[in-house]
Amino acid sequence: RPSQIKKDEL
Amino acid sequence: MNIFRLAGDMTHLASVLVLLLKIHTIKSCAGVSLKTQELYAIVFATRYLDILTSFVSIYNTLMKLIFLGSSFSIVWYMKYHKTVRRTYDRDQDTFRHWFLMLPCLLLALLIHEKFTFFEVLWTFSLYLEAVAILPQLVLLQRTRNIDNLTGQYIFLLGGYRGFYILNWIYRYFTEPHYVHWITWIAGLVQTLLYADFFYYYFLSWKNNKKLQLPA
């Protein structure tokens, strides 16, 4: 599982 | 961060500032749909719920605050400011925008990346943003021609998501595992909704005529 990617987009 | 996303964010920022400036300077919101502004306030409120819990960067948090502040102050101006509220033509701005929110909420409950409170509301904000411009476009069809500032506002608002599409293409090719179908499809639908407005905006710009939308 890809790491818990942060929501970096607005 | 890539140039497409930065261009998108700056275009988005410009759109809200143009609108805020127009309303604040000429103390008028003629031709602006309050329903669309309310939908955008809800979009930002449900999109940035994690503003206090997850810190990405100063830029990210600053822009979230600007978008939240500007969208809510535009709604405040149009609803409560003694002078501006009189210029709002409520009998033309009749789109039942609550009917937009329910399908978006149901769709978010059905199609999302993770079934958590934040993720479902975040997905709801994506779907809602895609259709939030509809009350404004309907109002324009009714009032036929629009003033330059409102036209620029819609043009910039539509353009920002177009830049985001370029950003998603760029990130897809440069970052492994960067796949977000929900975001991409919602963003594409959103941009397509502006397509006919862009067409008439371009025509009016080319023929140097006042922007007239067909009946």
Could you walk me through the main structural features you see in this protein, from its secondary elements to its overall organization?
The complex is a heterodimer of chains A (10) and B (215). Chain A has 10 residues and is largely without helices or strands. Helices cover 0% and strands 0% of the residues of chain A. The relative contact order of chain A is 0.30. Chain B has 215 residues and is an all-alpha fold. Chain B has helices at 3-26, 34-47, 58-80, 98-110, 117-131, 134-143, 148-174, 181-193, 195-206. In chain B, helix 2 packs antiparallel against helix 5 (117-131). Chain B is globular and about 45 Å long. The interface between A and B is medium-sized, with 7 and 17 residues.
Strand tally of chain B: 0
- The counted number of beta strands of chain A is 0
Largest sheet of chain B: none
SSE series of chain B: HHHHHHHHH
**Percent helix of chain B:** over 70%
Strand portion of chain A? under 5%
Which class do the helix and strand fractions of chain B yield? Answer: mainly alpha
Mean pLDDT of chain A: 72
* pLDDT averaged over residues of chain B: 94
Kindly provide the radius of gyration of chain B, computed on alpha-carbon positions and rounded to a whole number of angstroms: 17 Å
Q: Which structural class do you get from the secondary structure elements of chain A?
A: little secondary structure
Which percent band covers the strand fraction of chain B? under 5%
